[in-house]
């Protein structure tokens, strides 16, 4: 994912000042790969990277974050902004019945989404909803909507194969008015590919109904094609929003960025499953994080920046890199830093791969043990801390007495120190994440 890619290229470079052009270019190459993997359309990637580059150039590297983390923060912010910034609600501000027209390719999820939206409007907004199918080519499609409407408990207006779609919609609208429905959702026919007849038909429906919402329904799993389809629909229809479906099957979320960029229209909902209640309001920030593949890494970064004295950690990492001896004072420093971070647990939960780390931590009563460790090291002499091999039986007894513990616990600490020292040797290069993982093990 992008987070690990960026730490590879950037975390070796440290320092104060601004992100350099060289650093930004290196990071942008990784970003490009990550977006390609997320299946974002090519022209969209280029635009997006240009924006990120422009913004990253002015960014100052603070003391607490690495260049990689700073860059990631810029990407996350830009991605969220490009995806619309904040959630945009469905617009129903019109003389009822508010008409919602569903447009999109066959199989994109129009009929399913019509049912989901009807349920959502009924339950969340307490609206009275009527649905109608203008898919006059497939009897099964009309029947499908009838069943869905029955399942979610909203009214369904009958239609038949061969009728004129515009006439059906107008009849349904008259019926909606008559029964004082708040919302009329018009499901339409799609083709398997963009085709002129379909476009003419949907454009005619749109012109006749002048809906308050013309929603483009698009399958997120179609990846690169989603952008092309979006362009075709946006060209003939004044789209007001997008429903991105089958997001449950697509872990990458790249279609969201493509579709938003190409249509310029807000994504309003996500379809996250086949059932009628599997509809979510779209939140740009969540999808941004999904595209970056980083779980809750940004809040982790913030937390780390707040609580860890990065400079000290860096000194330690540098020392290790230079193959200097890792002694008990370094060990104590580590312990103090971890204590300083407070709840280790909440921090670790946010790391990608958290479960493994937690499993490792399970047997250790970290907080208590760390405090004891620090107390024991405090009662050693400087010489003992630098040369732990000096600590034999007599010294152990003295240290134990000084710290108010048993000799056994001094032994335990020394073993723990040795294990840590061995492990630190294996940590090839610094980096806070590695350091922390090291501490946890
Ligand atoms: P339409 O031709 O545009 O009306 O598409 P449908 O609503 O008939 O949906 C086509 C297929 O996609 C059906 O099998 C749906 O169950 C499935 N589908 C629709 N939305 C979602 C979704 O959000 N997640 C999943 N997993 N499947 C969906
Ligand atoms: Mg359908």
From TrEMBL:
Reaction equations catalysed: GTP + H2O = GDP + phosphate + H(+)
Main subcellular location of this protein, as a coarse class: cytoplasm
SMART domains: AAA (SM00382), SRP54 (SM00962), SRP54_N (SM00963)
EC number: 3.6.5.4
An example molecular function term from Gene Ontology annotations: GTP binding
Classification via Pfam families: SRP54, SRP54_N, SRP_SPB
Residue ranges constituting the SRP54-type proteins GTP-binding domain according to the UniProt record: 266-279
GO cellular component: signal recognition particle
Quaternary structure annotation from Swiss-Prot or TrEMBL: Part of the signal recognition particle protein translocation system, which is composed of SRP and FtsY. SRP is a ribonucleoprotein composed of Ffh and a 4.5S RNA molecule.
The protein's name: Signal recognition particle protein
Organism in which the protein naturally occurs: Solimonas aquatica
Gene: ffh
């Amino acid at each position: 994912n992008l987070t690990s890619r960026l730490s590879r290229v950037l975390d070796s470079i440290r320092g104060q000042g601004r992100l350099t052009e060289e650093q930004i270019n290196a990071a942008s190459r990784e970003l490009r790969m990550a977006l390609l993997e997320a299946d974002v359309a090519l022209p969209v990637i280029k635009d997006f990277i240009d924006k990120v580059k422009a913004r990253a150039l002015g960014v100052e590297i603070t003391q607490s974050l690495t260049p990689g983390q700073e860059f990631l923060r810029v990407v996350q912010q830009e991605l969220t902004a490009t995806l619309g910034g904040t959630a945009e609600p469905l617009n129903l501000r019109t003389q009822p019945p508010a008409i919602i027209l569903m447009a999109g390719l066959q199989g994109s999820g129009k009929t399913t989404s019509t049912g989901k939206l009807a349920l959502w409007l009924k339950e969340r907004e307490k609206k009275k909803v009527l649905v109608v199918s203008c898919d006059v080519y497939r009897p099964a499609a009309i029947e499908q909507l009838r069943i869905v409407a029955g399942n979610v408990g909203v009214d369904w207006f009958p239609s038949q194969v061969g009728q004129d779609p515009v006439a059906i919609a107008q009849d349904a609208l008259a019926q909606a008015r008559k029964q004082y429905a708040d919302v009329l959702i018009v499901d339409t026919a799609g083709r398997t590919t963009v085709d002129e007849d379909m476009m003419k038909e949907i454009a005619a429906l749109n012109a006749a109904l002048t809906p308050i919402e013309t929603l483009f329904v698009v399958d997120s799993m179609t990846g690169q094609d989603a952008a092309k389809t979006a362009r075709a629909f946006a060209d003939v229809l004044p789209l007001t929003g997008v429903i991105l479906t089958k997001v449950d099957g697509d872990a990458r979320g790249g279609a969201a960025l493509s579709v938003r960029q190409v249509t310029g229209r807000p994504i309003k909902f996500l379809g996250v499953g086949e059932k009628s209640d599997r509809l979510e309001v779209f939140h740009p920030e969540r999808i941004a994080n999904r595209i970056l593949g980083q779980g809750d890494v940004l809040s982790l970064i913030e937390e780390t920046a707040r609580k860890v004295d990065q400079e000290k950690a860096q000194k330690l990492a540098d020392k290790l890199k230079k193959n200097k001896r890792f002694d008990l004072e370094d060990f104590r420093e580590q312990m103090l830093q971890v204590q300083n971070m407070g709840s280790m647990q909440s921090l670790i939960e946010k790391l990608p791969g958290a479960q493994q780390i937690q499993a490792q931590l399970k047997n250790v009563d970290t907080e208590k043990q760390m405090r004891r460790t620090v107390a024991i090291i405090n009662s050693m002499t400087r010489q003992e801390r630098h040369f732990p091999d000096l600590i034999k039986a007599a010294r152990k007894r003295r240290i134990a007495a000084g710290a108010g513990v048993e000799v056994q616990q001094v032994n335990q600490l020394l073993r723990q120190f040795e294990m840590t020292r061995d492990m630190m040797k294996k940590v090839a290069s610094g980096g806070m994440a590695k350091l922390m993982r090291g501490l946890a093990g």
